[in-house]
Amino acid sequence: VQLQASGGGLVQAGGSLRLSCAASGRTFSTLHMAWYRQPPGKEREFVARINRGGGGTLYKDSVKGRFTISRDNAKNTVYLQMSSLKAEDTAVYYCAGSSILTSTPTYWGQGTQVTVSS
Questions:
Q1: Cα separation, 70 vs 51, whole angstroms
Q2: Sign of dihedral through CA atoms 16, 21, 106, 38?
Q3: Count H helices, E strands: the chain?
Q4: What spatial distance separates the first Cα and last Cα of the chain, rounded to whole Å?
Q5: Number of C-beta neighbours around residue 2 at 10 A
Q6: Are the CB atoms for 59 and 50 separated by under 8 Å?
Q7: How far is CA 108 from CA 41, 69, 86, in A?
Q8: pLDDT, one tens digit for every residue, the chain (118 residues)
Q9: Closest by alpha carbon to 38, among 105, 97, 92, 101?
Protein backbone atom coordinates (compact mmCIF):
# COMPACT_ATOMS: atom_id res chain seq x y z
CA VAL A 1 0.00 0.00 0.00
CA GLN A 2 1.23 3.47 -0.85
CA LEU A 3 -0.04 6.41 1.18
CA GLN A 4 0.38 10.01 0.07
CA ALA A 5 -0.41 12.74 2.58
CA SER A 6 -1.04 16.33 1.61
CA GLY A 7 -2.65 19.53 2.83
CA GLY A 8 -0.15 20.72 5.41
CA GLY A 9 1.02 24.28 5.64
CA LEU A 10 1.41 27.37 7.78
CA VAL A 11 -1.67 28.65 9.59
CA GLN A 12 -2.34 31.12 12.37
CA ALA A 13 -3.56 29.94 15.73
CA GLY A 14 -7.31 29.50 15.66
CA GLY A 15 -7.28 28.64 11.98
CA SER A 16 -8.15 25.46 10.14
CA LEU A 17 -6.53 22.98 7.78
CA ARG A 18 -7.68 19.79 6.14
CA LEU A 19 -5.19 17.02 5.57
CA SER A 20 -5.78 14.35 2.96
CA CYS A 21 -4.18 10.96 2.50
CA ALA A 22 -4.66 9.08 -0.74
CA ALA A 23 -4.06 5.34 -0.83
CA SER A 24 -3.13 3.11 -3.72
CA GLY A 25 -1.95 -0.44 -4.23
CA ARG A 26 -4.50 -2.30 -2.18
CA THR A 27 -8.20 -2.23 -1.39
CA PHE A 28 -8.41 0.84 0.82
CA SER A 29 -11.67 -0.22 2.40
CA THR A 30 -9.99 -3.19 4.10
CA LEU A 31 -7.72 -0.92 6.14
CA HIS A 32 -8.28 0.89 9.41
CA MET A 33 -6.74 4.32 8.97
CA ALA A 34 -5.10 6.70 11.40
CA TRP A 35 -3.26 9.97 11.69
CA TYR A 36 -0.15 10.35 13.81
CA ARG A 37 2.05 13.37 14.35
CA GLN A 38 5.59 14.12 15.45
CA PRO A 39 6.10 17.50 17.11
CA PRO A 40 9.57 19.07 16.90
CA GLY A 41 11.99 17.26 19.20
CA LYS A 42 9.37 14.77 20.37
CA GLU A 43 8.32 11.24 19.56
CA ARG A 44 5.57 10.40 17.15
CA GLU A 45 2.14 10.25 18.76
CA PHE A 46 -1.32 9.02 17.90
CA VAL A 47 -3.86 11.64 16.82
CA ALA A 48 -6.97 9.92 15.46
CA ARG A 49 -8.22 6.66 14.04
CA ILE A 50 -11.16 5.55 11.93
CA ASN A 51 -12.19 1.96 11.34
CA ARG A 52 -12.44 0.44 7.92
CA GLY A 53 -16.17 1.02 7.67
CA GLY A 54 -15.99 4.58 8.92
CA GLY A 55 -18.41 3.95 11.75
CA GLY A 56 -15.95 4.13 14.63
CA THR A 57 -13.44 6.81 15.52
CA LEU A 58 -10.96 7.47 18.30
CA TYR A 59 -9.09 10.67 19.15
CA LYS A 60 -6.22 11.86 21.26
CA ASP A 61 -7.73 13.74 24.17
CA SER A 62 -6.12 17.06 23.29
CA VAL A 63 -7.69 17.15 19.81
CA LYS A 64 -11.21 16.02 20.71
CA GLY A 65 -13.77 18.55 19.58
CA ARG A 66 -11.24 20.25 17.28
CA PHE A 67 -10.19 17.52 14.85
CA THR A 68 -12.40 15.22 12.79
CA ILE A 69 -11.19 12.16 10.95
CA SER A 70 -13.23 10.86 8.04
CA ARG A 71 -12.82 8.67 5.00
CA ASP A 72 -14.19 8.24 1.53
CA ASN A 73 -13.70 4.65 0.45
CA ALA A 74 -14.85 5.45 -3.08
CA LYS A 75 -11.93 7.88 -3.38
CA ASN A 76 -9.44 5.79 -1.37
CA THR A 77 -8.84 8.81 0.83
CA VAL A 78 -8.79 9.58 4.52
CA TYR A 79 -9.06 13.13 5.85
CA LEU A 80 -8.21 15.02 8.99
CA GLN A 81 -10.14 18.25 9.41
CA MET A 82 -8.33 20.39 11.96
CA SER A 83 -9.96 23.46 13.50
CA SER A 84 -9.12 25.86 16.33
CA LEU A 85 -5.48 25.05 15.75
CA LYS A 86 -2.97 25.75 18.50
CA ALA A 87 0.77 26.23 18.45
CA GLU A 88 1.16 22.83 20.12
CA ASP A 89 -0.45 21.20 17.08
CA THR A 90 2.69 22.05 15.11
CA ALA A 91 4.12 18.76 13.87
CA VAL A 92 4.74 16.54 10.91
CA TYR A 93 1.51 14.64 10.36
CA TYR A 94 1.52 11.09 9.04
CA CYS A 95 -1.30 8.94 7.79
CA ALA A 96 -1.12 5.25 8.50
CA GLY A 97 -3.07 2.11 7.79
CA SER A 98 -3.47 -1.32 9.35
CA SER A 99 -5.46 -4.48 8.81
CA ILE A 100 -5.89 -5.03 12.55
CA LEU A 101 -7.67 -2.27 14.44
CA THR A 102 -5.55 -2.20 17.58
CA SER A 103 -2.14 -2.96 16.12
CA THR A 104 0.67 -0.61 15.25
CA PRO A 105 0.04 0.50 11.66
CA THR A 106 1.78 -1.40 8.93
CA TYR A 107 1.59 1.22 6.22
CA TRP A 108 2.83 4.81 6.56
CA GLY A 109 2.70 7.89 4.39
CA GLN A 110 5.57 10.31 3.99
CA GLY A 111 4.31 13.04 6.32
CA THR A 112 3.10 16.58 5.79
CA GLN A 113 4.23 19.56 7.85
CA VAL A 114 1.70 21.59 9.81
CA THR A 115 2.96 24.78 11.42
CA VAL A 116 0.69 26.86 13.63
CA SER A 117 1.92 30.35 14.41
CA SER A 118 0.84 31.99 17.64
A1: 10
A2: negative
A3: 0, 11
A4: 37
A5: 11
A6: no
A7: 20, 16, 25
A8: 899 999 999 999 999 999 999 999 768 999 999 999 999 999 999 999 999 988 899 999 999 999 999 999 999 999 999 999 999 999 999 999 999 887 889 999 999 999 999 9
A9: 92
